[in-house]
User: Which sequence fits this backbone?
């Protein structure tokens, strides 16, 4: 949901902007990488439902790799892709939502 439906479809996938702007509404008002929390929650829920140690191990490994990936995105890739990512970093928490970002989320969630 976070990658395909929370982003404005036309602006994100159809327009060919030289330097696109960040999405600062909805889930992306909560944190800069909201999908990571859902990803971790998915594996935790799957492990709780199935009680399989291999799922817990896979969830931990995949979540750690995902965290490394988003750190690289946040520090290097997105700064080059999005023209306003520096401003977005100043106003939106990296991973864990705070009171201000939760308020922005409530005002902009569709």
Assistant:
């Amino acid at each position: 949901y976070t990658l395909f439906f929370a982003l404005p479809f036309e602006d994100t996938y159809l327009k060919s902007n030289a330097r696109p702007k960040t999405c600062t509404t909805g889930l992306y008002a909560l944190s800069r990488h909201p999908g990571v929390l859902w990803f971790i929650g998915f594996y935790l829920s799957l492990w709780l439902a199935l009680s399989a140690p291999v799922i817990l191990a896979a969830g931990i490994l995949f979540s750690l790799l995902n965290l490394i990936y988003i750190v690289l995105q946040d520090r290097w890739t997105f700064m080059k892709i999005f023209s306003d990512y520096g401003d977005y970093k100043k106003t939106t928490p990296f991973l864990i939502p705070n009171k201000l970002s939760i308020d922005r989320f409530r005002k902009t969630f569709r």
